[in-house]
Amino acid sequence: MAKVALVTGGSRGIGRAIALKLADAGCDVAVVYAGREDAANATVAEIEAKGVRAMAVKCDVADAAQAIDAVNRVIETLGVPDVLVNNAGIIRDGLAMRMKPEDFRAVIDTNLSGAFYMIRACLPAFVRRRSGRIVNIASVSGMMGNAGQANYSASKAGLIGLTKTIAREVAARGITVNAVAPGFIETDMTRSMSEAALKAGVAAVPMGRIGKPEDVANAVAFLASDEAAYITGCVLKVDGGMYI
Ligand code: NDP
């Protein structure tokens, strides 16, 4: 029987690459998206073309009730998920001195609380089955800090703490919980940055290039695989050496 994977923010960028990679590994994939239905439907079509099942699920992960509803819709259509990838994320950059409280909250709500709500919605089924893989997409920004990203760094550092705690809570139930911390990856998120910020970003990467969404997807697919059965609570950096 095919495994079922749920990827939040699976419609675009890194999440899309993860969804496609998990489909290559034989998973049926639920693509959770916030609002851009066209992108979600396009990714679902690409996944289905690989011969597995897929569905688009509109859900604001920052809303706990929507998270539960989304997981229930996936269970009804594809079955109980085996793999949960918390990838949905946003930025609202600005220096802390001028950062609006609502911009701080919005980033925490989506990047950190959203992951918690999805984990909470999936865990009862994982625990009943005594198996499951959770992979949270953090960021090197959460490990080393980044000027202009007080909200984002805090959300990603929080996500790493969440990963480690849930890993401890469910380790005896056959469930692994890990984080992947990308560095500087080419997506809509980085394309929205200024030319100067992009240049400075690449200059901080010892490998001298921006990463590809597929670089991150490969790491996620490994942590979601049977081969990673004895790995839990780890943070795997995919950053070209940006944070060593
Ligand atoms: P993109 O902006 O390209 O895509 C974001 C995805 O998240 C979209 O699918 C979007 O859906 C979805 N999303 C956003 N908010 C919500 C929400 N509230 N509920 C559900 N889905 C939501 O981002 P990236 O691919 O660049 O980033 C993916 C993850 O990787 C993020 O967590 C980011 O923090 C992390 N990361 C990215 C790095 C980079 O350099 N790009 C570096 C380090 C970490 P929709 O299309 O509907 O808007």
Tag the structure with descriptive keywords.
single chain, 244 residues, Rossmann fold, 9 helices, globular, binds NADPH dihydro-nicotinamide-adenine-dinucleotide phosphate
Write the layout of secondary structure elements.
Layout: E1 4-8, H1 13-24, E2 28-33, H2 37-48, E3 54-58, H3 64-77, E4 83-86, H4 101-129, E5 132-137, H5 141-144, H6 150-170, E6 175-182, H7 188-191, H8 195-203, H9 213-223, E7 235-238
Description:
There is one protein chain. Strand 4, helix 4 and strand 5 form a beta-alpha-beta unit. This protein starts with a strand and ends in a 6-residue tail after the last strand. With 244 residues, it is an alpha/beta fold. It has nine helices and seven strands. The chain has helices spanning 13-24, 37-48, 64-77, 101-129, 141-144, 150-170, 188-191, 195-203, 213-223, and strands at residues 4-8, 28-33, 54-58, 83-86, 132-137, 175-182, 235-238. The chain has a seven-stranded parallel sheet with strand order 3-2-1-4-5-6-7, with helices on both faces. It has a single domain, classed as Rossmann fold. The structure holds NADPH dihydro-nicotinamide-adenine-dinucleotide phosphate (NDP). The site of NADPH dihydro-nicotinamide-adenine-dinucleotide phosphate has 33 residues, from helix 1, strand 2, helix 4 and helix 7. NADPH dihydro-nicotinamide-adenine-dinucleotide phosphate (NDP) binds at residues 8-9, 11-15, 32-36, 39, 59-62, 87-90, 110-111, 114, 137, 139, 182, 184-185, 187-190.
